Amino acid sequence: MTKPVVHVDHVEKIFGKKSENSFKALDGVSFDIYPGEFVGIMGPSGAGKTTLLNVVSTLDNATSGKIEIAGKDITMMKQNELADFRSSELGFIFQDFNLLETLTIYENIALPLSLQGVSSRKIKPLVHQVAEKLGIKAILAKYPVAVSGGQKQRAAAARALVHEPAIILADEPTGALDSKNARSLMETLEHLNSHHEVSIMLVTHDPLSASYCERILFIQDGALYKEIHRLDDQAEFHQQILNVLAEFTSLDRS
Amino acid sequence: MLWKLLTSSMKKMWKDYIVLLFGLTVSIAIFYMFQTLAQNKAFLEANALIGSIVFVFHVGTFILAFVTIFYIFYATSFILSLRQKELGMYMTLGAKKGKVTQMMFFETLLIGFISLVIGLIVGVGLAEVIAGLLMKQLGFNGGGFEAFYSSSLITTVIFYAILFLLTAAVNAVKVASKSVLDLVRASQQADPVVTKGWKIFFGTLFSIILIAIGYYAMINMGTFMQVGVIVAAITVTLGTYFFFMALLPFIVKRLKSIRSLNEKGLNAFTFSQLQFRISQLTKVLGTVTMLIALGLGAMAAGLSFYHNIAIQTSMIYANDVAVYEPTEEQLAEMDSLEFLERNNYSYKVTDEGVYFLKDDLLNNPPLIQKFTGDIDQLTETARVDDPLDQAEYSDTATNEEQMISDDWSTALRNELLATFRIFGDRTLYIVNQEKFGQIESEVASVMVGRVENFLDHEDTLAAIDEHNKEIASGYTGSTPDMIGSKYDNYTSLKALANGTIFMGLFLGIAFLMMMASVLMFKLLSSASADTHRYQMLRKIGVRRSKLSASIYKELFLVFLFPSLLGFVHVIVGMEMFSIILIEPFTKIWIPVTIFLVIYVSYYLLTVQMYKRIVLPKEK
């Protein structure tokens, strides 16, 4: 059996001081993501999706429990180690793209490589390769402000991919896109996942985007609520997701 | 309720407000400091060499006021940029426009008032410290200078009160004229810099040509005179602005296009920040450069006048010391001076004349400064070699042959100090041994010597002057005010120049501080718009130390370019003074050091404050 690329073990996250006004955002969450998996995280607002993503992405630290990424325990790392770890092992895609508007698309994509000290001779082919995969070769010389939202998000995806991280963490990547662009981006991610074995963890509230995943973890009140697998048909999976979400709504009503 | 909202969000944005307060305070303090001197007419007129000094300070006040007005308008519109989104939100929630406008007005005024109080206190302190330091360094005790000068205080208060009222009104009007949507949508979008090729080409060309013309005019000031000054002032200023509009963006662009450099670490980000920054700051950088040039130029020119005094006196005197009838004690003390050369000359004094022994003069002919007629080197040191064939010479002789020659006369008067100050209206003679022996008087002697650097022995030289004055009173019955020695000349010239130099330095320092603070404020006021970029970089895994290094590097370059160009302007500009100063570049390191200290402090302060604003907090 292969080792998981993300191993989350009984993770708790408590906000506020322990005695007063404390709030448990994550309550003993455990799951694994294996190499080449495309996993979605869903749940109603306030369920702890973003907290989970922040904790896994090392931007925030867990109160207790253990998180291993690519075999390394990130809960014990110091700030600088975490920064280095993020830059080498993680790829981020955010809802609002988070491209640097003062850099061209090319420079944005090249940044993670430059940061790791890759020589500029090697950077160029790598950037072109990933841009080719995402279909944004034509806009490399442009600034983010001059390209469409969909292209921006592809550029962000290219930046997340270029240094071949252990896993891509995507936080509502389709949140700021129209449905056509959203679909096209999800198709691209699915393609990257199935043809290039890229591991992806996707946090979303959009059932359609989620239906591109292979497996979805639903969380509710900081704990794992349900896990569903996609069998074959995407439309069917979509329906399945909607059904689970409907359960949440009825839970709320009861 | 609105007031409560206002104060609470001011607390939230205290970092931005601190920057604003700091900027305003510095401006007020410097304006006040400058006024303490500019308005003290009695002090100016009593202590300046230049008759039109009051006018110079009026011009200075004008320039400073001009810069200040822009600065204050910019700074207060910064308040608006901080607040407009929030004000818009209040309005969407139903706050009346009149109320919001009123709020903006009073907020601007309140901040103005706070900074005025702090600024005046800082200004008094600054004036006290800087004036004290300068006076001590120059050995100048200009009486009448007051750090706490009520008339300047009043002027500063009135000037800023009007400015703040005006800007508060402008801010209020701006809020009033905007629709709710305008306000809500207001956000600082960083547009990328797209520079057109031909614009850069022509701008660069213009910049180089203009600066070249200006430099040519300044270097050849002797030929062009006043026209040259005007031409240089116009072309260099314009060229400087073009430099920042075209040439500098071009250089950064070239830098960015070196892939191996651009794609190393955070460089791509640093350069693009720089590129973006420069495009925002072209006018400020140009202004800063010109004012650095002016401030540094004022200090350098003032100081080189000062240091030229020593050179000027050395052009008149070949020897540094002449002691009449030295005592045993003095002779012993003389040994410590380490003379390069020293000679003794015997003389006798009667009621009618002073007789110098010819043999002494011929055996050790004294050095004098001879005029060459060459503009570049007015005098040269040479030994008197005119023959002394006659038995007797005098300065009142009727026949040509017995007249003391020009060179010997120079030697006696300038080097031996044998003038009316010591000997009254006695006639000077040079006589042979035979005649010397016949004169019924005691033999006395004067010692003349030359040292490495006479400024190393100021105390001894002052004591010798006093001693010579006593001797003089023995001969003439009255003590002269001056003895006419090299040191004597040096100190009186220095006293004359000191006041002027003090003012030049004061003016220069005030300008430099103002300039650097303008740059600092401009940088910091746009800092909060950069925050999200640093946060993003942090997210994708850039170490804090690397972000910090990138800030150091970027701001270093922003500070570097105006200082470099300003510095070159000064170096070339000082050539102008070569027509009135002998060595315009002597000790140029002093103003340069003052400048560097001020500028580097501002740089480091800016980096620290900028880091506080943009870097994400570390847990």
TrEMBL record, chain A:
The keyword Magnesium does not apply. The keyword ATP-binding applies. Keywords: ATP-binding, Nucleotide-binding, Transport. SMART domains: AAA (SM00382). CDD domains: ABC_MJ0796_LolCDE_FtsE. GO terms for molecular function: ATP binding; ATP hydrolysis activity; transmembrane transporter activity. It holds the Pfam family ABC_tran. InterPro entries: AAA+_ATPase (IPR003593), ABC_transporter-like_ATP-bd (IPR003439), MacB-like_ATP-bd (IPR017911), P-loop_NTPase (IPR027417). One of its GO terms (cellular component) is membrane protein complex. Residues 6-246 form the ABC transporter domain. PROSITE patterns: ABC_TRANSPORTER_2. Belongs to the ABC transporter superfamily. This is ABC transporter ATP-binding protein. The lineage of its organism: Bacteria, Bacillati, Bacillota, Bacilli, Bacillales.
From TrEMBL, chain B:
One of its GO terms (cellular component) is plasma membrane. The keyword Lipid metabolism does not apply. Pfam families: FtsX. Keywords: Cell membrane, Membrane, Transmembrane, Transmembrane helix, Transport. Residues 61-179 form the ABC3 transporter permease C-terminal domain. It is a multi-pass membrane protein. Coiled coil: none annotated. GO terms for biological process: transmembrane transport. The chain crosses the membrane at residues 54-82, 103-127, 147-176, 197-218, 224-252, 284-306, 501-524, 555-582, 588-605. It is found in: Cell membrane. Its main location: membrane. It comes from the Bacteria. Belongs to the ABC-4 integral membrane protein family. This is ABC transporter permease. It comes from Gracilibacillus oryzae.
